[in-house]
């Protein structure tokens, strides 16, 4: 048994055991609960619904690895989406061309980066707690968005945008391809770059990282900027999927991004975790949502189940850590 576990850890990593076990459990339970679960329709639905949640989770991941948090990701995504929508509206609305879309997307990414830049600067130079800083940014972005839109939606976009949210290439949904590209980019950044190494160092011990010569302020600013850019990508995907934008889109996603990170083995205090187990955890959560939907549960019950699952994950991780200490 120990040899098998060692081989598994060598191939996949120890942090993959939990997400893969959860994936197997969800597949087994719902395959018995509903004959329609293990079908192409279910997995096709998951493939289209997963991307915006997945990209938002990647936006949450890097701040958590530094020991922080970005509570403003959903409103950053919505403000970025609104930026793109306003650019399209100013250039003809449904008659806007690809040039207007590219300009609006660039501005949306810039808005996401600016949101992260402000948070990163405040956190890095004042040492204010990331929860308070990101909460303040969340409140600001929500209030700004409500003021500018008067609480309404913006819709009426060119038809060539629709494939970004609903199209497929060789049978693979376009938004899923975008998510996979973001997952690969995040994995490479965290595992192969100096910024990734510095991110883990700061999460492990920021003072030690500072004494070892790492410019911790610069790293924190870059991490929150990248988080804002990733949230903006999610905002663009949501605009294409829903064909409309409003400030409150995806508010429930915030809880799920944190849950996916913890289910994927990310240390809530920073310094440890990988992208791939988080990606598997995202699939688990989306399959759980689809399974509950097939059983007739509404979205509110699904959100409640996600909240309970977050508590269960934290308790199980505590028991696991205690068991390991006892064995040693």
From TrEMBL:
Superkingdom of the organism of origin: Bacteria
InterPro entries: ABC_transp_permease
Coiled coil, from the record: none
Keywords: Cell inner membrane, Cell membrane, Membrane, Plasmid, Transmembrane, Transmembrane helix, Transport
GO CC, one annotated term: plasma membrane
GO molecular function terms noted in the UniProt entry: transmembrane transporter activity
Membrane topology designation: Multi-pass membrane protein
Compartments in which it is found: Cell membrane
Main location: membrane
Pfam families: BPD_transp_2
Sequence intervals crossing the membrane: 12-33, 39-61, 68-88, 100-124, 131-149, 169-190, 219-240, 252-269, 276-295, 301-319
Keyword Transport appears in the UniProt entry: yes
Name of the featured protein: Branched-chain amino acid transport system / permease component family protein
């Amino acid at each position: 048994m120990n040899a098998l576990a060692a081989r598994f850890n060598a191939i996949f990593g120890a942090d993959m055991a939990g997400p893969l076990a959860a994936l197997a459990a969800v597949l087994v339970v719902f395959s018995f609960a509903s004959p329609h679960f293990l079908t192409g329709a279910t997995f096709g639905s998951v493939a289209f619904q997963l991307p915006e949640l997945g990209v938002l989770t990647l936006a949450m991941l890097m701040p958590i690895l530094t020991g922080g948090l970005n509570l403003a990701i959903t409103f950053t995504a919505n403000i970025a989406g609104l930026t793109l929508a306003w650019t399209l509206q100013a250039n003809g609305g449904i008659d806007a061309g690809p040039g207007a879309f590219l300009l609006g997307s660039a501005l949306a990414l810039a808005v996401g980066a600016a949101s992260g830049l402000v948070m990163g600067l405040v956190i890095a130079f004042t040492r204010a707690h990331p929860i308070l800083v990101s909460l303040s940014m969340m409140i600001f972005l929500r209030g700004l968005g409500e003021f500018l839109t008067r609480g309404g939606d913006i819709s009426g976009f060119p038809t060539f945008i629709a494939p970004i949210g609903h199209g497929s290439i060789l049978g693979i949904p376009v938004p899923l391809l975008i998510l996979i590209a973001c997952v690969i980019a995040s994995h490479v950044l965290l595992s192969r770059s100096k910024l990734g190494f510095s991110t883990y160092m700061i999460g492990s011990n920021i003072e030690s990282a500072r004494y070892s010569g790492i410019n911790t302020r610069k790293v924190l600013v870059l991490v929150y900027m990248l988080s804002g850019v990733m949230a903006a990508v999610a905002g663009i995907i949501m605009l294409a999927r829903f064909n409309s934008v409003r400030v409150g889109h995806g508010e429930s996603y915030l809880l799920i991004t944190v849950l996916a990170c913890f289910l994927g083995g990310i240390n809530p205090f920073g310094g440890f975790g990988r992208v791939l187990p988080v990606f598997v955890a995202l699939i688990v959560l989306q399959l759980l949502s689809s399974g509950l939907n097939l059983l007739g549960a509404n979205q509110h019950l699904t959100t409640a189940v996600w909240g309970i699952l977050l508590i269960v994950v934290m308790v199980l991780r505590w028991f696991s850590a205690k068991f390991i200490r006892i064995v040693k």
